[in-house]
Here is the input.
Amino acid sequence: MFLLLFLFLILQRVTELFIAKRNETVMKNRGAYEVGSEHYKYIVAVHVFFFISLFVEYHLGIKGISPFWPILLPLFIGAQIIRIWALTSLGEYWNTKIIILPNATIVSKGPYKYIRHPNYFIVGLEILTIPLLFQCYITAIVFTALNIAVLSVRIPAEEKALMDLKSYKKEFTNRKRFVPVKPFPEPE
Here is the structure.
């Protein structure tokens, strides 16, 4: 089961990179620009080393599937459903980079009706549940911490870039959501 899930995840990530590159080209041809490129390499590194760590820890320990798999597997499957929902809701706006299209209308459908960055939530859930599913506790702890660290830079950079879009502030200031947010600061 480990190898099947591992190969599924690698194929999923490679497919997403192709989609992201295509979307980046489409957006840049429409006048979009990238922000936050200085931290992108750290996000990529966390994800690459996550898979390496997961593979190595599993094969060094081979403890098998967790006794908590009836909880962890549905969490993982649920995350995949929300991932597809988030990506299809964003359509050509979805990317692994922060690509900003001036004067674009902010997507506020799908999971974006309820949470500002559902894909980051999903990735965090995966980085925790996948290793736990196979009792790879070191990978779960280390990469959950590393993911939090890179997202503590990534999310503010993305929020700052999105604040330049008038529709972002208008769309999300008064929207009630499941995740509490601070009110937007007044522009300087």
In short: The chain is about 65% helix and 5% strand.
